[in-house]
């Protein structure tokens, strides 16, 4: 008869082996919340000294200046060519279906097995 205590303990040990050391036994209790927060108007994270300079506009020659931090927008007077580098959804769907479906060799072996079973 197998004793369940050592079996259960061994199974639990193997299941929890990847969780890391038990830090609460070493005295480090509680979660580690390492937040790197910069909550100012102009922040710089440097090693050593740094000089912070405010943005200024000098020698204005344009009639209108738009300052923006938009990532996906472009303002232009005339656009001649637009190139969109996005993959259509049907290409991704076709790749997924091709990855899931069996290979032609597997299909032919399955058909041959089915024919052999029907003849027998």
Explain the overall architecture.
This protein is an all-alpha fold and 120 residues long. It is built from 4 helices and no strands. The chain has helices at residues 4-15, 23-26, 89-100, 104-119. It starts with a helix and ends with a helix. The model has no long low-confidence stretch (mean pLDDT 75).
Set down the secondary structure blueprint.
Layout: H1 4-15, H2 23-26, H3 89-100, H4 104-119
DSSP, total strands = 0
Mean pLDDT: 75
For the record, give the distance between the C-alpha atoms at the N and C termini, rounded to a whole number: 46 Å
Order of helices and strands: HHHH
Shape: flat
Question: What is the beta-strand fraction?
Answer: under 5%
Radius of gyration: 32 Å
Helix content range = 25-40%
* Sheet of most strands: none
Structural class: mainly alpha
Tally the helices: what do you get?
A: 4
Low-confidence stretches: none
Attribute tags:
single chain; 120 residues; mainly alpha
Provide a short characterization of the protein structure.
By secondary structure, the protein is mostly helical.
């Amino acid at each position: 008869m197998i004793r369940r205590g050592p079996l259960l303990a061994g199974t639990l040990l193997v299941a929890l082996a990847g969780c890391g050391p038990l830090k609460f036994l070493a005295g480090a209790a509680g979660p580690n919340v390492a937040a790197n927060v910069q909550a100012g108007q102009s922040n710089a994270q440097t090693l050593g000294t740094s000089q912070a300079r405010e943005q200024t506009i000098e020698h204005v020659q344009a009639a209108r200046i738009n300052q923006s931090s938009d990532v996906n927008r472009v303002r232009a007077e005339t656009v001649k060519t637009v190139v969109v580098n996005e993959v259509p959804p049907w290409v991704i769907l076709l790749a997924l279906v091709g990855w899931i479906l069996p290979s032609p060799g597997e299909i032919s072996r399955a058909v041959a097995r089915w024919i052999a079973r029907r003849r027998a």
